[in-house]
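Sequence design from tokenized structure. All designs in this work follow the same two-part layout: the structure record, then the generated sequence. An example of the structure record is given first.
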């Protein structure tokens, strides 16, 4: 049976993952959507443009995971805190200098910190341009992959440009900047300062940057809508439903089965961009998941649903710092605690989508083990579904046969031997055997 789900429901839920990887409080993209749609309406944008603006605002941070590892490498810091705090910087030299000095290599020795600071001060302009270019280009590419219009992609691409030409990566200015980007940048700054210091701080920052960062016409529209009633609505616990119910257009956009596949594949790129060691991980886990499911005789529709679960199982890793994900040595207790939370994050994000409730359970349990020694809940045996066992086996097999910061990739035979060592304790022997048969079949087919 063909299934259709409201596109806005899916994107609004997945926007919470983008909040995580930007280090922002929950609901940041949704609040930006509320702010930006009010501005767009005040500017008199037509209905079709407002619908594209709606999705631009929810997906503005679509490429944000792609520079996380590089930020950790260059600044020797937690990328989540770095990104969160940097949104409060107005770009002036004194603020940038204070930020760099207070966020670079703070937990390293003095000589290592000095070398990092020297590199940043010497190559700062080039570094920031590259980081933003990577983020914006990747975000636009993924938006196109997820079938959004070129207008949405362009709005994401121009997000970090400034009205006076002082932004990055291309230094474009004025009306050349896409109107969606001009609105989204203002909405983003307004939300950050509203959450940090309240309505007056948000309005003051908008006025202060009018004509430099922001289009004065867009700021004027914001000041018109920022009434006394505006701010309580922005802070309302019901805002998510308000935004969902205010999607422009004559009728709500719907996602069929094919479109759901494209959305899952697009977000898999966001997830895997978080670390250079997980490039392609979600796609490979989806492949191994399908190979196991095929050997077990699962129906095509069930296999398709499982592939989506595999593509999105690690979405919670967007809420874990790259300094933890890419650490070459053993994690300490605090870091291991952070790492284990990614399964919980995955379940929380996916459970926001009614039709993905079963995928949420897989995302939350893919690190559980049959003997109860897994995480986050320590469930065991029959409490772990066969679907979860399949994805878990595929996940571990790919992790073993791929490079990791602490070791090189293992040969297939060794990876399978490790899986068999844990058969009945960590992983289901039925799944391991099915994976072996699938790999043998693939090898024969390639011969």
């Amino acid at each position: 049976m063909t299934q259709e789900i409201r596109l806005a429901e899916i994107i609004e839920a997945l926007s919470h993952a983008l909040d995580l990887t930007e280090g922002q409080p929950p609901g940041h993209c949704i609040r930006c959507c509320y702010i930006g749609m009010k501005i767009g309406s005040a500017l008199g944008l037509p209905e079709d443009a407002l619908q594209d603006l709606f999705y631009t605002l929810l997906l503005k941070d679509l490429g944000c995971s792609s520079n996380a590892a590089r930020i950790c490498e260059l600044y020797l810091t937690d990328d989540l805190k770095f990104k969160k705090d940097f949104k409060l910087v107005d770009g002036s030299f004194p603020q940038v200098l204070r930020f760099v000095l207070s966020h670079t290599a703070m937990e390293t020795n003095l000589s290592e910190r000095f070398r990092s600071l020297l590199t940043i001060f010497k190559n700062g302009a080039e570094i920031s341009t590259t980081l933003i270019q990577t983020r914006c280009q990747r975000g636009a590419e993924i938006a196109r992959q997820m079938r959004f219009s070129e207008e949405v992609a362009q709005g994401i691409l121009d997000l970090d440009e400034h009205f006076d030409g002082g932004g990055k990566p291309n230094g474009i200015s004025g009306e050349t900047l896409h109107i969606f980007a001009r609105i989204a940048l203002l909405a983003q700054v307004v939300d950050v300062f509203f959450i940090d210091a309240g309505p007056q701080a948000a309005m003051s920052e908008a006025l202060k940057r009018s004509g430099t960062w922001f289009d004065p016409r867009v700021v004027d529209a914001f000041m018109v809508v920022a009434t006394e009633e505006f701010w309580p609505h922005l802070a309302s616990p019901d805002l998510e439903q308000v935004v969902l119910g205010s999607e422009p257009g004559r009728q709500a956009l719907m996602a069929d089965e094919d479109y759901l596949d494209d959305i899952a594949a697009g977000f898999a790129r966001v997830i895997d961009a978080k670390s250079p060691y997980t490039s392609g991980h979600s796609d490979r886990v989806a492949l191994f998941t399908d190979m196991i499911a095929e050997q077990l005789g699962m129906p095509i529709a069930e296999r398709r649903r499982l592939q989506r679960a595999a593509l999105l199982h690690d979405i919670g890793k967007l809420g874990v710092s790259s300094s933890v994900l890419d650490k070459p040595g053993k994690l300490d207790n605090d870091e291991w605690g952070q790492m284990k939370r990614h399964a919980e994050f995955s379940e929380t994000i996916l459970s926001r989508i009614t039709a993905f409730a079963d995928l949420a359970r897989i995302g939350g349990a893919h690190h559980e083990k049959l003997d109860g020694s897994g995480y986050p809940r320590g469930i065991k045996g029959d409490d772990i579904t066969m679907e979860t066992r399949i994805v878990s086996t595929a996940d571990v097999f790919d992790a073993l046969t791929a490079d990791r910061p602490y070791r090189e990739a293992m040969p297939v035979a060794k990876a399978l031997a490790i899986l068999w060592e844990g058969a009945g304790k960590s992983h289901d022997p039925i799944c391991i055997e099915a994976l072996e048969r699938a790999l043998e079949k693939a090898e024969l087919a390639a011969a």
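The mean pLDDT is 90. We note this feature because it recurs in several other targets discussed in the main text.
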